[in-house]
Sequence to fold (113 residues):
Amino acid sequence: MDLENTQVQMRKGILEYCILHIIARGEVYASNMIDELTSAKMIVVEGTLYPLLTRLKNSGLLEYKWVESKSGPPRKYYKLTDKGAKFLEKLTETWDELIHSTEMITSRSNTKA
Fold:
């Protein structure tokens, strides 16, 4: 079994949740998302992020607007829709349950009852 592959798969599994959290804070540009995800060791490349953002937009969870840039072409800024905020709220409930369940399992000692 490949440890690195398993670690990558674990990160991918929560990537959408992390992206929605970043966007929930306010309008955000994709490169800022990449910077934050990378600094949190959720290593992401544009080829991963943009298709995910498109899927989230097509699902009605986020929207974007174009903003003129002083240093190049216009930039696309993303924000959550009301549907996206509700979706994130439900994901957060699931995340909290997963943390609780995982801690219950991983904190048990090896002693048999």
Residues 65 and 110 are 54 Å apart (CA to CA). The helical segments are 3-24, 30-39, 46-58, 82-106.
